[in-house]
């Protein structure tokens, strides 16, 4: 069976908190974080039908054979939008009806506005082509307890498989070779067959879970730049929920990009190189200018919740009022050597529990154990913010009034910070459990980083106050 066709059957949207299903943690900031989450989930739609351009509608009650020009003649799937991306007018408005689930990947083009209409939960865009919790998708192989799932050539590499909305995630059981699939939830992706070999001793997995979502590289980003256009500029994305894709939003060499009021979760895990796996909730890479990321809830990303990376210049990047949790890095920002971050502010965000999400577990051991080679990729560098790149500088780059809540390895990972080449920290709240690590800092002539394990309030004061003199420190 090939699974290339995207399911368009009606599915009820998920309305409970799935972020806490893997690696659940708690702190004194739970109530404040929940209030922010509710504010984001209940935000009013900022994008309205265009008055001077074309508006297209997508509805769970629609049909891809319609013209998409009215709510009554709406299209059905994001997959259809991807297929006709080159035909959509630049500057179009695309609205998804609330209360529906939409599967597949779509492209964004310069000038687009992409948002929601109607009532109910945010439109939920899934990269996974099906809910694979159905016995028909799984085929018994000749190997004991090993099942075959054919995902089709369009999806490509499978980075993680999420069971029951996040209770189990098989990213940590991904194997490099087929003969390593020997224990429950082990899986191997065969690129020639476009299929997953999956170990499940209890029987056909399709009949034993409420939800099985497959994150594949072919989904790339749920909203990604339309490559034939080159750069993608002047895009606004508002009030969407994006899950089960290798990225949520992705664009390069961009200006005037805005992402607001979105929910993004269970992202990434697909291979980039032999050692490196991908997965960012929102990423803008290479040179970028005039970026706004505000009032979003991002969680359970294999790599980073939100990242600005690469290129020589990041200018006027405003990141505020976001709740980001359970990612390996919650935020990440760096430019290439001799580049700079200029006139940018990260403020009033709540960043929680880096290193506790699915993407951090077995991150290093994945490669070492199953290739027989040593690697330094992944592991204890996780933190609420990863900043810096050796040789880069900043000009009016401020990180202020954020909450950095705990961390499995670090509160903040800023290895190249030396008071000159890094951002300016002002008035942030730094919280960690007693005995937990706090920050990483550069050591040695080559700038290698080591985690700094501080276990007391006094040690935190010594480590953090030189970086953030007006910081609020909590160790409890």
Description of the molecule:
With 476 residues, the protein is mainly beta. Among the domains are: 20-24 and 130-216; 268-475. Helix content is 7%, strand content 37%. The protein contains four helices and 35 strands. The chain has helices at 30-41, 78-83, 365-371, 457-464; strands spanning 55-58, 93-97, 101-103, 106-108, 113-117, 124-126, 138-140, 146-150, 158-163, 168-169, 187-190, 195-199, 212-216, 221-225, 235-238, 241-243, 247-260, 263-267, 280-294, 297-301, 304-309, 313-320, 323-325, 329-334, 340-347, 350-352, 383-387, 393-400, 403-405, 412-413, 424-426, 429-432, 439-443, 448-452, 472-475. The chain has a 15-stranded parallel sheet that branches. It has a ten-stranded parallel sheet with strand order 3-6-16-18-20-23-26-29-32-35. β9 and β10 (168-169) form a beta hairpin. The model is unreliable at 373-378 and 440-453 (pLDDT under 50).
């Amino acid at each position: 069976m090939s699974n290339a066709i995207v399911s368009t059957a009606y599915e009820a949207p998920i309305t409970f908190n799935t972020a806490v299903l893997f690696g659940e943690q708690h702190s004194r900031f739970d109530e404040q974080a929940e209030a922010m989450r509710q504010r984001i989930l209940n935000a009013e739609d900022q994008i309205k039908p265009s008055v001077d351009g074309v508006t297209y509608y997508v509805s769970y009650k629609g049909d891809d054979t319609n013209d998409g020009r009215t709510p009554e003649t709406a299209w059905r799937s994001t997959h259809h939008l991807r297929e006709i991306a080159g035909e959509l007018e630049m500057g179009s408005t695309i609205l998804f009806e609330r209360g529906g689930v939409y599967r597949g990947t779509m492209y964004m083009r310069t000038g687009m506005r992409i948002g929601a209409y109607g009532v109910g939960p945010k439109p939920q865009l899934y990269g996974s082509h099906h809910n694979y919790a159905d016995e028909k998708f799984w085929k018994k192989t000749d190997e004991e307890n090993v099942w075959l799932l054919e995902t089709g050539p369009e999806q490509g590499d499978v980075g993680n498989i999420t069971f029951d909305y996040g209770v189990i995630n098989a990213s940590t059981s991904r194997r490099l070779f087929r003969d390593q699939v020997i224990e429950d939830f082990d899986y191997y992706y065969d690129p020639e067959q476009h299929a997953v070999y999956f170990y499940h001793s209890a029987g056909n997995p399709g009949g034993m879970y409420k939800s099985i979502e497959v994150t594949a590289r072919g989904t790339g980003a749920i909203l990604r730049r339309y490559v034939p256009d080159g750069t993608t500029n002047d895009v606004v994305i508002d009030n969407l929920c994006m899950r089960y894709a290798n990225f949520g939003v992705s664009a390069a060499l961009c200006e005037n990009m805005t992402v607001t009021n979105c929910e993004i979760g269970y992202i990434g895990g697909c291979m980039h190189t032999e050692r490196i796996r991908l997965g960012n909730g929102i990423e803008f890479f290479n040179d970028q200018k005039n970026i706004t990321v505000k009032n979003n809830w991002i969680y359970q990303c294999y790599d980073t919740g939100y990242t600005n990376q690469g290129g020589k210049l990041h200018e006027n990047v405003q990141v505020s009022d976001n709740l980001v949790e359970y990612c390996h890095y919650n935020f990440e920002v760096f430019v290439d050597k001799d580049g700079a971050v200029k006139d940018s502010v990260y403020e009033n965000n709540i960043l929680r529990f880096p290193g506790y999400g699915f993407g951090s577990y077995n991150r290093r051991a994945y490669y070492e154990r199953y290739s027989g080679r040593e690697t330094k990729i992944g592991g204890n560098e996780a933190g609420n913010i990863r900043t810096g790149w050796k040789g880069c500088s900043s000009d009016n780059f401020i990180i202020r009034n954020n909450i950095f809540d705990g961390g499995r390895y670090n509160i903040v990972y800023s290895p190249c910070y030396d008071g000159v080449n890094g951002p300016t920290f002002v008035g942030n709240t730094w919280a960690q459990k007693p005995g937990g690590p706090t920050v990483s800092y550069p050591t040695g002539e080559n700038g290698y980083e080591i985690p700094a394990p501080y276990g007391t309030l006094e040690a935190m004061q010594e480590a953090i106050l030189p970086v953030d003199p007006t910081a609020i420190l909590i160790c409890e």
